[in-house]
Amino acid sequence: MPGIRLLFDLWTHPANNTHRLRSIFRAIAWQIRKRFSKQPKLIPYHGMQLHCPVDNHSASRAIYFSNLPDYWEMLFMQDYLRAGDCFVDAGANIGLYTLLARSQLGESGQVHCFEPNPVTAEQLQKTITHNELRNVKIHLCGLSDQSGSLEFELGDDTCTSHIQPKDSSHKSIWIDVVRLDEILQDTPVTMAKFDIEGFEPFAVRGASAMLHQSNPPVLLIEVGGLANNYGVSTDKFIAELASMGYTTAIYDCEQRKLVNVDQPWRVPTENVLAIADSKRLMVEQRLARS
Fold this sequence. Notes:
The protein has 290 residues and is α/β, with parallel strands linked by helices. The chain contains eleven helices and 14 strands. It has helices at residues 2-12, 20-36, 57-64, 71-80, 96-105, 118-130, 180-184, 200-205, 208-211, 234-243, 280-289, and strands spanning 41-45, 48-52, 86-90, 110-114, 136-139, 142-143, 148-153, 162-163, 172-178, 191-194, 218-222, 246-252, 257-260, 271-276. α5 links the parallel β3 (86-90) and β4. The longest helix is centred in the N-terminal third of the chain and has 17 residues, at 20-36. The radius of gyration is 18 Å and the shape is globular. The termini are far apart. The relative contact order is 0.11.
């Protein structure tokens, strides 16, 4: 059944529309490598090369879905970001969003990656070093509403590592966590992405001073329901964003338009954009001119 589901996803994913058979052959080759070799693979990725460990789910998705696994989210970044911008990648993992952002920002921009898993951060560093990306900085820590340390659960896949909920007995380590307000409050940020397995509300609360100044104008946030593990429902989180002046939306790639969504589970989508109301016109103008 997993094989049938993968085949369906490969065939229907919009990034594979013009080369479905090639994507299937690429997936087969990757599956063979995963089973018979432990060696990572370097793949072309948005004008650079991405270090892909064979046991990493994000690496598989990049290979399967033609470097645009999160299709509308990544097309939004390509249409919105400009040279010289600043991008924050919270939950950077091996760098799919980091490299995509860097491809748009160029050498004059900045990328700040927050990745608390030391194994994953080392893999990301290999990619950054290999591509000689001097304006990409890794922060070996997590984001929260209070600085300090938290217990961090190590999942079977580094993509599912997360802050440990109460009453969990899985293998864990202690990590440093910081408030984004303390690290980047004086930095104009163009866009921030939060994909931290349900801990997004706490990371956003730790950036409240910045957000009340519409900095950054755009957030990309995972809202797949994992925040319930920490006592925060999706509708409550969206209400918190609204109280800070942000409206949630998705991106219509074909029309290059933002579509407001206050109940993402009805779309359905696991990610939403949060657009600062005071900056919405600027965001829409960027999208129209891209």
